[in-house]
Specification:
Layout (H helix, E strand, L loop, with lengths): L15 H15 L6 H8 L13 H25 L5 H18 L1 H7 L7 H26 L9 H13 L1 H4 L8 H16 L4
Helix pairs in contact: 1-2, 1-3, 1-5, 3-4, 3-5, 3-6, 4-5, 4-6, 4-7, 4-9, 6-7
Length: 201
């Protein structure tokens, strides 16, 4: 039997973004490997067979979520790399603040990204892309050291890991919609990080 709007009774309709959002929430809540398509079907109020009308596989959802996070972070890093007129220090600071803003805007997807361990093709590819980002960030730190903007007594790759370890830690406690907005949060992290890293005059 069909409803007046042509939809099938008992089979809720979901667009792809809603299915993806609910899947990512479930993956973050109980773990990707521990989540089955049956679990997702129950989360959406669908039968196990009906879920395949919305998405071909669990790994497809994982790949979409990881791409969402990585595409946004890559755009931030690539944008800083192409801003040749700016100093390396300013570009590095822009990457930090931009990364915080991405994390806030795409909190569930970034949270999932930071939890992958390389189990499966999608996770291996995500880790490869993360390593590319890490390498670009370390290069940018090295440029800032070379121009005399940052202290030179800490290895650039360690500075990069510490900076983005601080940014990434936000997934553990920050809750979108809370009392601190993205702009205030990114300013606070940049101030704490760069005041401590700035070379003494």
């Amino acid at each position: 039997m069909t409803t007046g709007n042509g939809g099938r009774r008992g089979r809720p309709g979901y667009d792809q973004q809603t299915v993806l959002r609910r899947a990512v929430e479930l993956f973050n809540r109980q773990g990707y490997d521990a989540t089955s398509m049956g679990d997702l079907a129950r989360e959406l109020g669908l039968s196990k067979s009906a879920i395949y009308h919305h998405v071909p596989s669990k790994s497809h959802l994982l790949e979409q979520a990881l791409d969402e996070a990585l595409d946004e972070l890559t755009a931030v890093v690539a944008g800083a790399g192409s801003a040749a007129e700016a100093s390396a220090y300013d570009r590095l600071r822009a990457v930090v603040t931009g990364s915080v803003e991405v994390l806030v805007a795409h909190h569930p997807a970034v949270t999932l990204l930071l939890r992958v361990r390389g189990n499966g093709e999608a996770e291996v590819e995500a880790l490869r892309r993360r390593r590319w980002l890490d390498a670009r960030l370390a290069d940018l730190v090295q440029e800032a050291v070379a121009e005399g903007s940052l202290r030179d007594d800490v290895p650039p790759d360690l500075v990069s890991r510490l900076l983005f370890g601080m940014v990434n830690s936000l997934v553990e406690w920050y809750r979108p919609g809370g009392p601190v907005d993205a702009a205030a949060l990114s300013r606070a992290i940049a101030t704490i990080a760069f005041d401590g890293l700035a070379r003494d005059a």
